[in-house]
Amino acid sequence: MSEFLNTSPIWTPGAILMGLLILGSGFFSGSETALFYLTRDEIRRLKSGGPSARLAATLLRQPDRLLTVVLFWNLIINLTYFAISFVTAKKLVSFGHSTAAGVLSLFALGGMILFGEIFPKSIAVNLRNSIAIAASWPLALAVRAISPILPALSTLTLAFRRAIAPSLKMEPYLNVEDIERAVDSSEVGGDLALLEQKILGRILEMSEMRTEELMRPRGTFATCYPPVDLAQLKQFGPGTEYVFLMDPGTESISRVIPLGDVNAIPETNLESISEEVVYVPWCGRVSATLSTLRTRILNAAVVVNEFGEAIGVITEDDIIDTLLNPESSRARRLLDREPVLQVDENRFLAEGLTTLRYLGQRVGFDYEDRDDGLLTISALLYEKFERFPEVDDECEWEGYQFRVVEANGPGKSIQVEVSRVPEANEESDEEQ
Fold first, then answer.
1. Going by C-beta distance under 8 Å and a sequence separation of 6 or more, which residues neighbour residue 331?
2. Tell me, what's the pLDDT at 250?
3. Which structural domains are found in the chain, ordered by start?
């Protein structure tokens, strides 16, 4: 050890540089662990925090890009670190201090493992929120520094992947067949098993349900033009959870303010706490929309028709509510009350917004996706009458009779009375 200390003038400059590089490696290792160890709820809370917290959440919207940057800089630091270690050890050997060179090499390896990897990662797991916020700006600068070469790195990675494993495909975590088997195997009786079976059945429905079936139609959600201040929000009800921002130039929905996720609402410039939205087609599946929202850590999607026009919005909360609550329905969320009321044993009073799927659950018929695109009671009436419904209009569909009892004009509510059409044998029994 005395020989090693006596040679300090030789290895001190290299050790100082190596110490700085260990700090850099520890920073990137700890930052990677802190950011990627965050749960989805923690990331959503970051989005409603200060500038540094929102920046951390923004970086995680492109996790592959962020991970590439972190690994790139960590690799550069480690290569530089061991290069300096090798040069310093070689210098010691050239001066005849082979033992000191060996000690330095062991210290260099152990120091990088302990202080560049293990300790930073262990601390980051427990202090992930604080570290993620503190590291957001340095990481943003690191991303910007190598942004010009990121496309080349992505192309190189893709080329290696195709060359080494051209047929490699990501295996789905769960597919429809697995869920169907789970539904069959859960039929063991008991309230809990019944609840599980219902939820699994809802998951299967979501794989077939179109986005427009769950969306909130245009005109049923809060919208504002930026800039937005706190006084403008008073025009909306106290239960408003989302305010969608309109683009003045295109008249389309560009961003959303998730009021339910915000800890503190500023007096002015509320668009600063808004987040982006994704655009999904009206015919897309709800399961795909949910996957997109969760992957990009967003709250809402804008539903567009074949002409690219926004016809409604759908939120993650709406989808989760539909998944977990068997009594959930879009009409119930919009009207804040039950949309289908039972009048007597064979008659029901339903709102025009009610989906045919939910009506089937309440009345007792099985609904299946149809080629005619009928989703709601209102759509069924328009299809049957080819005009706006009027009071006492009647039609039959799938063995049920629909009679309009309230029609207040375009944009107003429609109510219908739904009753099962008696079968021929039932009518003959009544006559006898």
1. 339, 351, 353, 354, 355, 358
2. 77
3. 2-164 (no CATH), 178-207 (no CATH), 209-324 (3.10.580.10), 334-431 (3.30.465.10)
